[in-house]
Amino acid sequence: MASESHFKENLHNLHLEDEGHYRNPSEVKMSQIVLPCHANHCRELSIGQLLKWMDCTACLSENLDEDEALPTERTRVESVELVLPPHANHQVNTFGGQIMAWMENVATIAASRLCNAHPTLRTIDMFHFRGPSHVGDRLILKAIVNNTFKNSMEVGVCAEAYYGDEPLRHINSAFMTFEVLDEKGRPRPLPPIKPEPQEGQRRYQEALARKKIRLDSLCKLLIRVDEDDFIYQVVTPSVSKGGKDQDFILLASRRPPCDSGDPYVIALRSVALPTHPSTEEFHRGEVVCAGFTIYEVSKSISKISYYNQASPEVLPYISTDIAGLSSSFYSIFCACRQYLLDNIASTSTFTPSTL
After folding, report:
1. Angle ∠(216,222,226) on CA atoms, nearest 5
2. What is the pLDDT of residues 221-263, one digit of tens each?
3. How far apart are CA 309 and CA 305, in angstroms?
4. Which end of the chain has fewer CB atoms within 10 angstroms, the N or the C?
5. Strands 70-71 and 138-148, how do they pair?
């Protein structure tokens, strides 16, 4: 059995058909064959499936002047999926790939509502399995465009599950970056968005921060020495126009508090690694000795101090940080916070609420 879809859309100009009649530029025609997977136990088309098709055609029919900012709420998408046996493994847990496919679907629809075109998924960040879902669960999938940049947009997606009358469980979330390609395969400019007050503004600013973090640095784990010591390669952009990017080979060590009142310490310093010598691609920098100390002030507050010995290689970066011209400090502290959350079992002195 096969399914067939046919879309006719004209987003910019009125179209003169063979019969000599004009069509509305936002008109979309869609045809679908109803398959068994689209029906309920009475062999009737399920309402949810019908609404999904209606939602898809509705988002394709939207026509917006690209010079106007689109309210983010107009990109919001919500879908409900029923987890059936084919969606789960032998332990009746929903396949992670299936959840990801559903999340990508709603994110793509949200992105298409912004650009009135077919977006291309480029990256997925911070995709976390927060908890399982099972056969019989209903999954609520939500997506919204958080921010647009010159040639890309970030869509936030979350998946929640429930069974019967039980409360919602947050099981997955991710940030997906989309582009829209022109006829030559190049990313085309995207229209701006207008964030809603409060939550929309928060998502807008956080998406901007994540964009800066992605541009500011690239960190790659090279060697896990032991449970507390790791060697990373960190790449940072040049502070001068046209200059080479810098890379650092850093040993990162963590030390939990020895006694009540002692700080949690994260120390960094450059090391020589024969397997990763300096290359022509990067200018090899050096960090003499740096790190963080984290003191618990109370059960809800922690004090984080950052220390750095300024060698000539890192001084320009510290100067731009102090001048407020770089987001690397924000990146560093976000990474530190995430590090503590990821290692919460070994840092029981600190709870997520203290970060």
Report:
1. 120
2. 899 999 899 999 888 766 565 677 788 999 999 998 988 888 9
3. 14
4. N
5. unpaired
* CA–CA gap between residue 304 and residue 296 (Å, rounded): 9
Tokens matching residue 330: 């924000």
Report the length, in residues, of the chain: 355
What pLDDT, on a 0 to 100 scale, did the predictor assign at position 7? 32
DSSP code, position 344: G
Q: How far is CA 71 from CA 54, 66, 197, 203, 302, in A?
A: 21, 12, 11, 13, 37
The alpha-helical segments, DSSP class H, found in the chain are 47-61, 96-115, 199-216, 315-322, 328-342
pLDDT at 353 over 50: no
DSSP conformation class of 245:
P
Choose among 162, 205, 216, 234: nearest CA to 331. 216
Domains and CATH numbers, the chain: 27-63+218-337 (3.30.530.20), 70-191 (3.10.129.10)
Q: What are phi and psi of 269, to 5 degrees?
A: -160, 155
Q: At CB < 8 A and 24+ separation, what contacts does 93-102 make?
A: 93/132, 93/133, 93/134, 94/132, 94/133, 94/134, 94/135, 94/137, 94/139, 96/129, 99/133, 99/139, 99/159, 99/171, 99/172, 100/127, 100/172, 100/174, 102/139, 102/141, 102/159
Query: Which distant-in-sequence residues (6+ apart) come within 8 Å of 45 by Cβ?
Result: 34, 38, 39
Q: Which two tokens stand for residue 187?
A: 């990313």
